[in-house]
Design goal:
single chain; 73 residues; alpha/beta; 3-stranded parallel beta sheet; 4 helices; 38% helix; Hydroxyacid dehydrogenase
């Protein structure tokens, strides 16, 4: 399993993902992070999404709109 996390704000990342949370998540999935401190766009999500089984978003992430979800898997 492969999971994309699109939380790019470092303070929000610390708030949402404790060490225990990340340990549990990485025990069941390969975790890939969007680049920290750089906005993650709708186009990036559409390009990246087909590679992943799951996505975790947060404030400032693109919405999982019908357009984004219509990308070929």
């Amino acid at each position: 399993m492969k999971t994309l996390i699109t939380v790019t704000n470092p303070d929000l990342k610390k708030l949402l993902f404790s060490k225990r949370c990340l340990d549990l998540l990485t025990s069941v999935s390969e975790v890939c992070w969007a680049e920290e401190g750089k906005p993650y766009t709708d186009n990036q999500m559409k390009a990246d999404l087909p590679e992943f089984d799951a996505v975790i978003t947060g404030w400032g992430s693109p919405k999982l709109s019908a357009d984004v979800l219509a990308c070929p898997m």
